[in-house]
Design brief:
SH3 type barrels; mainly beta; 5-stranded antiparallel β-sheet
Length: 77
Amino acid sequence: MVIEELNTVVLLRDVDEHGLERGDIGAVVHRYSGEREMYEVEFVTGEGETVAVLTLHRDEIRPMDRREILHAREIAA
C-alpha cells in the first residue's frame, strides 16, 4: 500500500530520544521523492501539541488499518 501525505501511520520501532514507542500513531506531513521511500511524520499529543517530527523510512512505519483502534498513553515529560 502506498503511503501519501496526510495518511495516518503506525510507528514500528521505539524512538527513545523522543519518548515514542512502537505502535504510536503519526501523520505524514511530507513524502520525499526519490528511490528511497522516506517520510516526514508528525507525532502529537491528544491536545495537538507536537511531540516530534521525524524523517522515517518506509520500513519504520506502516499505514494504519481501518479496523484498528487508537490507544492513549502518557508520554515522559
